[in-house]
Each structure stands twice: as C-alpha cells, then as structure tokens.
Amino acid sequence: MKTKLFRKGDIAVILIILVVAAAFWLYQSRQTDKLEAVISVDGKVVEVIDLSKVDGKRTIELDTEPEIKIAVENGAVYFEEAGCDDKLCINCGKLSKKGDTAVCLPAKTVVTVSGANVDVMTY
Amino acid sequence: MKKSIAFKTALGAILCAQALALGFLESLIPPIPFLPPGAKPGFSNIITMFAAGSLGLPQALAITVVKGGFAFVTRGFTAGIMSLSGGILSTLAMWLLLKFANNKLGLIGISVICALCHNVGQLGAAAVITGSGVIIYYAPALAVFGIATGAVTGIILSAVMPVLEKEKQHFYK
C-alpha cells in the first residue's frame, strides 16, 4: 500500500466536515422555544412532558425490555435506571437543551428535548 | 504456493484476531466525559484499513463480518447490528478511497472519511431500530470526534504498516 500519510486534500476534508458540523450545531442551538421532553418507544411517542412545568422530581417507568426509568427534574430529563448492560443512556446525563438526545437501543427508547414549534422557523 | 487459499485464510484469521484484540483493548477505556456516549476510537479499523488497501475488498469485508459476528455473540443483537452497519459502510468507503483517491487524499483524510461513514451507518441503523430520526442530533459531536479518532487511526496505521506488510510477507511469498 503506497498511500501517503498526509496530503493537502486531507485538510479540505477535515475543514468541510468541521464547517458542516458547526453549521448543523448552530442551527440546532438557535431554536430555543418552549422545551419539551419527548419519550418514544419503538418509534411511537409515549410521553411528552413540558420541561418548564415540572416542579420537583417526577419519574416515569417504562415496561420495555429491559426496563427503564426516566426522571424529569429542574428542566432536564434523563435516564435514571436501565436494565441494560452498557448504561450508555444513563451516561448521556441530563438533557436540557433543544436537540439533546439519549437513546437506549436495547429497549428501542429515545428521549429527546424538542421545542414546541419545530416547524416554525424565524431568521 | 503463491497466494494459495490456505495462506490467505491463515493471514485473514490472524488479522481478524488482531482486529478483535484491538476492539477489546478499546473497550477497556472508561467513558470519557464531554464525548458523545458510545463513541469509540475504532482502533480495529487500523486492521480493516490495512486489509482493504493491501489485500483487497473480500478480505477486508471478511474481517468486518467477523467483527460484527463477534459483537453479536458477546454483546448481543443491537451491538452486532451496530458493528456491521457501520463496519460494512466504512470498509466499502475505505476500499474505494484507497483504490481511486490515493493520489488526492492521504491516510489521515481517508481514515477520517471512513470514521464518518462508520457514524453514518450506525446512526442509520440506530434510526431504523428506534424508528425515530432524532438520533441525527448526535451527528455533529460524532463527526468532530471522528476527525480526531480518524486522524489518530491514520497515523497509527502508517506507523505499523511496515510490521503488517512483514506479517503479510510470511504468507504471500
């Protein structure tokens, strides 16, 4: 294999990726509407919680396989307990900004924070 | 006995073992804060990339499938699907780029693109499994992380290339 370690094209590749990622990220963070936690299992929304209206802590237990416990507290939503092995969803930590997402693949469960009116955009 | 099937198979098996060992080693790295959960350095791609560039597409795909099968057996169905979806897409990209773009891109650039293809494949599979597209929000963080790990993988590959070529010479006399 005679490929060189580095060529000028590599810089272009890295810059393009950075610019696209930054643009995508900016686009996400600019939408700051009312925040809602959307919990869906297997593609179906099972629960929508208005994060600004939750006082104190509230937990939601889902009888998925493995079982999952999701908590809502101080404008944030997070996986509290999960019966899976890797605990990736718990490691995602607290989700409080629009676009924050945590996924438990074994239980096919997605928790995401979305704005109330996603399809209305103002520039 | 030039390039006989037995020799190819033996070399392939050794490369598979090396890829799995690297995969195991990186599983020992604890989760790092600030990084997207589940993001991994992908060191085993060093081996697949060598195979794609030096041995050809069938060998590289075989290693990818063994890796996927290993994930399936040891870590379950979802892990297997995630490994295969990302692995096959990135191996195809690797092979195409090493074959047709190696006068424009270096190992770093190719490795970065492959890391990205790995992400795309996995996010796609995850979107299908969860039946929801919101997982795309992971993409920017994964892409930036992928640049770093892709570059590291490319650098390591160029460093270990002589050793791997020597390993190959034992079998391809």
Model description:
With 123 residues, chain A is an alpha+beta fold. Helix content of chain A is 22%, strand content 35%. Chain A contains two helices and seven strands; from the N terminus they run H-E-E-E-E-E-H-E-E. In chain A, the strands form two sheets. Chain A has a four-stranded antiparallel sheet with strand order 2-1-7-6. A three-stranded antiparallel sheet of chain A has the order 3-4-5. In chain A, strand 1 and strand 2 form a beta hairpin. The longest helix of chain A is centred in the N-terminal third of the chain and has 23 residues. Chain A is extended, with a radius of gyration of 18 Å. With 173 residues, chain B is mainly alpha-helical. Chain B has one domain: Arp2/3 complex 21 kDa subunit ARPC3 (Orthogonal Bundle), CATH 1.10.1760.20. At the A-B interface, helix 1, helix 2, strand 6 and strand 7 of A face helix 2, helix 4, helix 5 and helix 6 of B.
List the helices and strands and how they pair.
The complex is a heterodimer of chains A (123) and B (173).
Chain A: H1 8-30, E1 35-41, E2 44-50, E3 58-62, E4 68-73, E5 76-82, H2 88-91, E6 101-104, E7 109-115
Antiparallel strand pairs in A: 1-2, 1-7, 3-4, 4-5, 6-7
Chain B: H1 5-27, H2 45-55, H3 57-75, H4 77-100, H5 107-130, H6 139-171
